[in-house]
Amino acid sequence: MGPGSWTPPCHCRAHAKLLHFTRGKMSQIGSGKSRFATPELRRDRGGSGAGRIRGGPRPGSTHGASDVSRDWRAAPSPPARRCLGFCAQPCQVSSDPALRKGPMDIAPPPIPLSEPLGPGCAARANKPALVHNAITLAYDRVFTDVERVAGKLGDLGIGPGDIVAVHLRKPVTHWMVTLGLMRIGAVSVSLTSNALGELAALPGVSAVICGTGEESAFPETLWRFAVTRDWLDRPVPAAGVLPPPEAANRTVGRICFTSGTSGRPKAILLDAKLLGARLAGTARRAGIDSGSGLWCGLGPDTAYGFTATLAAWLEGGTVFLSAGDRGAFAQMHARGVNILIASPAALGPLIRDATTTELPRIDGPVLVAGGRLSAGLRDQIRAHVCTRVMIAYGSSEAGGVTLGDAGALDIHPGRVGTVFADIEAEVVDPQGAPVPPGGEGRLRIRTDSIVPGYINDDVASAQVFDDGWFLPGDIAALSDSGDLTLLGRSAQILNLGGVKLPVEELEDRLRALEGVDEACAFLVKQGPTEPDLVIVVVARPEAAEALGPAIRAAFPRLPPFGLFSARELPRGSMGKIRKQEVAEAVTAALEGATRGDTALDVVPLGTG
Fold first, then answer.
1. Is 173 in contact with 251 (CB distance < 8 Å)?
2. How far apart are the first and last CA of the chain?
């Protein structure tokens, strides 16, 4: 392994199970089998359990009688072995006996991952930990409720290292179940509106926890458990029923999806080591401490939304759960919110809500992540929400890279701040050689928090992971003092007859036109001809008719384009437009599909 390369945790049970399910090359990893028994064995465990739905084991998986006991100690540790291809690069487990340890022998991370509310509960039991609408839960209440949920999960057969998906629309319930899974050392993943696509990309999932009545929406090859009120109407588990926190700390993990604008889910695994590193870095860099009142507009399914929320609890702060829409700004004032983390798309509704009040701006920063921040949106945030606006640049795959003052946008619209001291960043030419300071090229990042690759997707991994480096797809320039400027994305610079067009810059200028609320641009290929430029807007009716000539007047050198309108543009959890869905709707419209044939309806407005 070269300098800065990453050694995959091949001794980790969660990693071994992911290998088992995604590669199909082993029917059993050592003696550590899945804790999900066959239906016959599950019936022997006693009681149907509220919300339990029996189903068969996943095809190709092996379940054994050694898993019948609910006792966490019944699951033996798998031996260390060679990685079977989960990582982006092949790796060999160290021959050093000191490095070849099972899960119960690995030194746990210093951060209490399995009990993130533990320190806050011990120091400030009656302080609010979580606020959602009329619900206010103190640290001691959340802590004991999580213990109850963890006990229920154990009764259902879920144990350390098991991979479990969560699909719950109520944010408080979603977090309680997620924290319960962490408490028993399981690997959790939050599903979104694209749940079936995400499950298809992650065959290692053994069970889904969902709302009552939603069980049939998920494949019968999974165990499906519905959350009911009785999950909390139970005593706190007695000592010894749940895994000791230090043991759960070794197997806990988090899977997050990252799809950018392509619409294709790609999964990453944050094991205990990576998750601990991310949490420590998030709290330190974002300035989260015990006095923080955090509103995070990024969902728990995103890596940053998940780690920022956990970091607030680990530090003893208060988390305010809200969609950030009507009435949210007044609630933030009333609840003492003093730090906001959100995407540009999530901040739009909050700004509109703030303008309807006479309340002063919040005394604290806004950290904008998950999308390009324009100077215009920055100025609106400053005027109505907070005076201090920061740009958080990073990725799910590598973690945070910069956190810079948004005032730098006046220097360049792509300036995102100075690279953190513990992050190695380079700008390279097409051959992979570093360019001189200030030169333009592809950005690559190397850090201790980088994941080794995408789960079950060797092709995508090979495209962006290379010898410990991650290539996020950004074209950038890096000064000799470490100031990073993003110039566009390699996949979003359109080449139209020799005219290179940065899509983000075009979309920013389209949104600035009178009557345009949202806009996206992309290429659509029809037949053997060159791809055509397509622009899709969300525009007010009075502006739609004259929009084509207005765009042509604003962009006289723009190649011919097709113009379409939509009621809204679909977005992912980070606020990015899912352009693949929009492109599919446009293609269907061009082929004469009738309204309702696709999930998104678009209306042709002509050409320009």
1. no
2. 54
Instruction: State whether residue 298 is helix, strand or coil.
Output: coil
* 119 band by pLDDT with thresholds 50, 70 and 90: confident
**Smallest Cα–Cα separation from 252: which of 274, 235, 220?**
274
Structure tokens belonging to residue 471? 């290539």
- CATH of residue 96's domain is 3.40.50.980
Q: Assess if residue 353 is contained within a domain.
A: yes
Assess contact for 454 and 402: CB atoms under 8 A. Answer: no
Domain tally, the chain: 3
Would you state the pLDDT for residue 260? 52
The dihedral sign for the CA sequence 135, 138, 144, 147? positive
CATH of the domain at 380: 3.40.50.12780
State how far Cα 166 lies from the chain centre: 13
Question: Tokens at residue 497, please?
Answer: 């007859």
Same domain? For 384 and 435 the reply is yes
What single letter denotes the amino acid at residue 256? C
Give domain status of residue 249, yes or no.
Answer: yes
248-262, 354-368, 460-474: segment of lowest average pLDDT: 248-262
Nearest CA-CA partner of 55 in 156, 149, 152, 148: 156
Same domain, 204 and 331: no
Q: 392 and 369 in contact (C-beta within 8 Å)?
A: yes
What would the two tokens of residue 193 be?
């509106």
| Tokens encoding 367 | 């950290």
Q: Is residue 348 part of a domain?
A: yes
Q: Are residues 429 and 373 in the same domain?
A: yes
Domain interval for residue 441: 322-490
- Angle, vertex CA 397, rays to CA 393 and CA 399, nearest 5: 45
Q: How many other β-carbons are positioned within 10 Å of the β-carbon of residue 375?
A: 13
Only one residue has tokens 């992912």, namely 572
Who contacts 29 (Cβ-Cβ below 8 Å, separation ≥6)? 13, 16, 17, 19, 20, 78, 81
**What's the pLDDT band for 93 if we cut at 50, 70, 90?**
very low
Sign for the pseudo-dihedral over CA of 465, 467, 470, 474: negative
Per-residue model confidence (pLDDT) at position 492: 65
Q: How large is the average pLDDT for residues 335-360?
A: 94
- Cα separation, 90 vs 514, in Å, equals 53
Q: Do the domain assignments include residue 532?
A: yes
Please report where in the chains the tokens 């390279």 appear, as a residue. Answer: 428
